[in-house]
Amino acid sequence: MQYIPSPIYTADVRLPEELLPLSELLAENTHEVWAAGRAAEGWTYGETRDDAKKQTPCMVPYADLPETEKEYDRSTALETIRLILKLGYRISKD
Known about the structure:
single chain; mainly alpha; about 45% helix
């Protein structure tokens, strides 16, 4: 059977301006969780990705990632926030 992804449509969700800083924090944390998982599996920094040696150039702090890598994490974070709002939840900072 062929898998056909069917994410919930969220393109109609407009993010309030005040949630944009949250999206960047979520993006950074997404990278940190990913990096912690890789480190636990024995991955380290390497100039180029090498699966056999478990090396990747992305084993750096979020601030040091290339913009293309940050955009991947930002996209994940923004889509998560959109989905939360689409499902009727509210996000507020106390």
